[in-house]
Amino acid sequence: MEIMELSEQLLNHQLGRNIYDDSGRLLLPKGTILQISHINQLLNMGYGKLAIGTETDADNINDNESSGEINPLTHAFTVAVDNLRDLMAKVSAGHLVGQGEVEETIELLFPGVMETNNILLNLQDLRRKDEYTLQHSVSVSVLSLKIGQLMRVPQHDLKMLGMAGILHDIGKCKISSAILNKNDSLTEEEFQEIKKHPVYGYEIVKNMKLNDPRIMLAVLQHHEHQDGRGYPLKLAASKIHLFSKIIAVADVFDAMTSERPYRGKMALFKAMNEILTSSVSHLNPQVVSKLRTYVLSICPGASALLNNGNIGKIIMMNTDEPSRPLIQIGDQFINLREQRDLWVKDIIM
Ligand SMILES: [Fe+2]
Questions:
Q1: What mean pLDDT comes out for the span 228-239?
Q2: Is 86 strand, coil or helix?
Q3: Boundaries of each HD-GYP domain copy (predicted)?
């Protein structure tokens, strides 16, 4: 397969990869013999290069972006961010918004999240862009959908959970951006104001007249803790809805593994360890356990950056000690359970 400039010279050439339209739908499948109408259509859509010919094994490791192909799930994430930006602008301006836009966003995300095993790979793409609050809300929705899927939440309920994830921080629209974007530490007063966002969010979502009360509950309860020391209502674990518990775990995991202006992102294993520790007092242990099993299941095949600067491929997880997997570097295999002077600093999906 070859990457070639898109022009009429590609007439009768065979397309090497799928091409998707703006809504993430398949437009031209790989193997299509390109006609002038295809070429003109792709030029109009802004494509500059195309993958041409038959895919070989070596092609599989090429970056999708270099071929001009848009990964449909990553594209759905981008559209979701755009939709949420519009929604938040309307809420900030005091306009009433309906549930239709949120439903539309979930319908767009849902199939890709259900079918994709390693969603962290797509979330990584999303995080390369700005606007943390928007990305974070979409990421929390996607992670909640994945955790819910693994917990066998029925499909209709899953969509409600996804909507709650998108909306979980909508109350931040009512908090001054000077407080939200402050890079220094917050004063007690500012912190108390930020802590009002679940209640603000609950009121906004109530006005949206969403026909499922669990969405309102999840927005209101996503900062409640297992030990009853969360906010705003200091609810005991038995009073916290499952949706709120799932969103709380997705929220903490995404925040820890995202880069912020005032701190770097936490490496995957370190974040999982922190979350496991938090599950004693803050987070629901069953939900944390599902997330942990999921994260460990998608690690084989990923690249691991070791403390000595070498990068290897994760071959197998050691179940007793998952942070010390079997790594391959070139033709050498290193079992980190045995080689204790080496450890994984970060995982690159
Ligand atoms: Fe929040």
A1: 96
A2: helix
A3: 111-307
Give the SS3 label for residue 345: strand
332 forms bridges with which residues in the sheet?
329
* Full residue range of the structural domain in which residue 39 is found: 2-67
| Residue 61: band (very low, low, confident or very high) from pLDDT cuts 50, 70, 90 | very low
Give per-residue pLDDT as tens, 179-196. 888 888 889 999 999 999
Domain CATH for 6: 3.90.105.10
Give the number of domains in the chain.
3
Question: How long is the chain?
Answer: 349
Distance in angstroms (rounded) separating the CA atoms of residues 36 and 160? 44
CA of 278 to the centre of ligand 1 (A): 16
Residues 6 or more apart in contact with residue 182 via CB below 8 angstroms = 190
- Helix (H) / strand (E) element for 293: namely helix 285-298
Task: Tell me the CA–centroid distance for residue 223 and ligand 1, in Å.
Answer: 6
Largest CA distance in the chain: 67
pLDDT at 63 exceeding the cut of 60? no
pLDDT in the model for residue 74: 83
Contact criterion met (CB below 8 Å) for 343 and 307: yes
Same domain, 186 and 149: yes
Residue 130 Cα to ligand 1 middle (Å): 19
Distance 212 CA to ligand 1 centre (A): 20
At 348, list the tokens: 């690159």
Ligand 1 center–CA 48 separation, angstroms: 40
Indicate the DSSP class of residue 15: B
Distance 117 CA to ligand 1 centre (A): 26
The confidence score (pLDDT) of residue 64 equals 43
Interval between CA 248 and ligand 1 midpoint (Å):
8
Q: Based on the domain organization, do 330 and 243 belong to the same domain?
A: no
CATH number at residue 142: 1.10.3210.10
316 contacts 300 by C-beta, under 8 angstroms: yes
What is the Å distance from ligand 1's center to 231 Cα? Answer: 10
Q: Which of 54-58, 106-110, 224-228, 326-330 has the lowest mean pLDDT?
A: 54-58
> End-to-end distance of the chain based on CA atoms, in angstroms?
24
Is residue 238 located within the same domain as residue 134? yes
Q: Which of 128, 219, 118 is nearest to 166 (CA)?
A: 219
